[in-house]
Amino acid sequence: MTALWGISFDATPISGVVVEFVKTARHFADRGHRVLLDLGYDIKADKDLFFQPYRDEGTLLPDWVELARVAGISDIPGYDQQFVADVLRNVVQRGEPEPRIQPLAHQIADLIVQAWEAQDVSFVLVENGTLPENITYTHALHLAVNEYGARRGLGRFVLWRDHDLMWQSEPSSRKYGDYPYPATPRPPASPHIHYVVLHEEARRRMLDWTPHLAALDVLPNTFSYDRAAVDTSNAGFRKYYGIPEEVPLIARCTRIIQQKRIDRDLHLLAGLTDAYLFVAGDTTESPAEYERLTGLAAELGVADRVIFGGLLAPREGHSAGNRYSVRDLLAHTTVMSFLTSYDYESYGNPIGEAIASGVPYLTTRYQLYDTVYGGKGFRAAVFDPADGDLPGPGFIQEVRDLLDDEEKRADMAEFNYQLGQRHTTKDVLERLLLTPMDERIRLSVILPVYNEAANLPAVLDSLYHQRGIDRELYEIVLVDNNSTDNTVAIAQAFATEHPDVTLHVVLEPEQGVSCARRTGMRFASVRSRGRSNGDERFHLVSADADCRVAPDWLAELFAAMESGKAAIGVCDYYYSPEHFTGRPRLWDAIWKTLRCRAVTFALFGTFPDGKGFAVDRDVHDAVGGIEIFYQVQDGRFVNHLSDDWDFGIKVRASGEDIAFAPRSRVEINPRRVDHAINEVITGRAYGNDGIIVMQDIRVTGAAEHPDLTEEQAQQAWEFSIKDFTPKNTILPVLLTPSLLDDDVVIEFFGPELAERLARRIAKIKDEMRVLDFTPIHSYKTPSYRLYFEFREEIFARLRATVGEDIGYPPPLPQCLQDVPPERFTEFVRYYCEDRESGEAHNYFGNGGVF
């Protein structure tokens, strides 16, 4: 099991930095990765924790987070807490040289790489690594990232997130020197690192400082929106801490250090005679500040209403025994306070947590408040330090009014909650686990896999040896769908052995090729938007792991997409005849289907098949990407298998064109036919009664495949053509009736038939009272109806265009054979719309394997 290695430069078990790490790491844990976290005790010098072992810090974190350290770091001569403190004082603040930094950084880097190798690390998340608290360790990380990334053949496997930077953290104190901060290691433009900052202002300042940085993104802190409600797990919170149930409670979640200005909360409390203040933070971090605050509380006469509750588990955690979490505190809080220093905060996590929990808040107008919250319209009681250092009578009265007015608090909290869902939630998987790609890449090839160890080397080799297209123009995104063999190891080894092509491995825990294809396309789409040349068209390409792409497959598909305006390009699919040597009857059925398909593909552009198609990224995003539908099979929900087809229908229905790229070819694996032929002969494949499900069609052993009998071959052909005709001949004109005005389409159908089809489609649409035929199944019923009504004429056109051997329509179902001719159209409607029996679905089949 591969691992995520987290590194916090905060050196504290719980802080805003650690909480954000937990939120991010949750997405890795959900996808089967181990999550390891180095709290930074051996990095930051001012916490007096260097080389001290972990004790009970893990109880504050979810049980899926393992605390980690770099073994052997305490044995490096000269690297200790005093050295780090001296570097911060002498090098960073005073600009004095220190020749020991680089040699020590190399030794630390070697140990970091050893730790990552031992834990099979595939992702690294660095929190606050640019802040120059320990520039030696930052240098070491840069060295380790480059060495490990090159050794493992990894892309941008590091997410480097800076919560605080020199211009955000106490700039007036000159703790980190002066701009342009010459001693601070500037972030290198590493091919292995994706940098993120918390807001646009930080991004602007970062680019002013390091204009060469291309892989830099904005990622606001994220919050899960679920109002903290009192329940049996936290109902005893107030009683446990001695807080009366009826009194207003002000909460402050913070480090207990001078910069957080908890003294302001104490002065506020002195003006609110009935309120209580709960301070959640480590009272041992700064003993002097804790002593100062308790003395001030006594001096102001509020000591009996102040609870220093110690560290609480993160809001994402839950109470366990006497261990309460921030969630429990918020469930009992009247208002959240954030009266911090003007120039200390970069984001303000407690505000975000209050908003997401449906709790009103009060705050200072700290330097970046309007950037993060105020400028977006959030409502709060705001204290402006420009009006004085401590809360005055006006602000105290504003808070008093808020505490007394339950309706006002509820309105404020609800307004902020709704606004926050638009501004402070992000899909973390898509926005920060995904990295910008090389500027030159124009295509991402998405390859869903499940236990494909036997087949994968040949597939990857065929993708690597594409002709007519530079490897720098495309990348491979392999989506592992819970493989239990060594599929992923094979992919990683391939990436290491072929560094000239980019390969990413993405995990998708929900079983089903549809889910895997959706995840891969989202991954590539979001990453591609990090490219600066965003005006160029970018294409998402689907491939199947059990098929073989021709050497010119990608080049021809790319050329087809670039030369036209089509949103989707569909490949040509074929079988190699040598796989059917000795089975002429089966091959004849297959060949007839392929010939029919070639005609309709050229006419209508058809719909995408997962075996090979490309879609314009912008169109993919505009229609919402791949959509997963679910069906009930044997009492449980399963993925509907036709995600690729339904995606094409959404694109076509949006007004976009689909083009056929006949020279972009994919060879279909014959095992699909060999596996399903018995079901095809009996008129079933991939399920029945409208249930379309994925089947594992891997061959488990050598098997001989005799040819079909004449009767079986006819049954197979009829099954195939019944599936083919509604989908490939009727559905395109059903979705886009304007095709029936096209000269080549009119030539195929004939003017008279084309005109009658157009009239009939309009009438059925009006009769069904639908706006369009886009939703799944909405298009099946009218397609089936039109097939029955026009089958004889359509087959006549196929015979005339493809060949006389196409023959005549398969026999009607018995129930329709018994219907009087004058009522045929009426009963076709009943038959096709009868969802309860599923007879029409079974007649037409669930998927033509030819």
The proportion of residues forming helix, as a percent range, comes to 40-55%
> Looking at the structure, what is the overall shape?
elongated
Structural class: alpha/beta
Instruction: Name the beta content range.
Output: 5-15%
How many independent structural domains? 4
CATH architecture of the largest domain, by name, is Alpha-Beta Complex
Number of strands: 23
Average the pLDDT over all residues and give the rounded result: 85
Which fold name is given in CATH as the topology of the largest domain? Spore Coat Polysaccharide Biosynthesis Protein SpsA, Chain A
Strand order of the largest sheet: 16-15-14-17-20-19-23-18
Low-confidence stretches: 318-322, 428-432, 696-702
Q: Give the CATH class of the largest domain.
A: Alpha Beta
CATH superfamily of the largest domain: Spore Coat Polysaccharide Biosynthesis Protein SpsA, Chain A
Question: Could you characterize what this model shows?
Answer:
- The structure is a single chain.
- The chain is α/β, with parallel strands linked by helices.
- The chain folds into 4 domains: 3-218, Rossmann fold, CATH 3.40.50; 237-423, Glycogen Phosphorylase B (Rossmann fold, 3-Layer(aba) Sandwich); 440-669, Spore Coat Polysaccharide Biosynthesis Protein SpsA, Chain A (Alpha-Beta Complex); 711-850, no CATH class.
- It is built from 29 helices and 23 strands.
- The strands form 4 sheets. The protein has an 8-stranded mixed β-sheet with strand order 16-15-14-17-20-19-23-18, with helices on both faces. It has a 7-stranded parallel β-sheet with strand order 3-2-1-4-5-6-7.
- It starts with a strand and ends in a 6-residue tail after the last helix.
- Residues 318-322, 428-432 and 696-702 have low confidence and may be disordered.
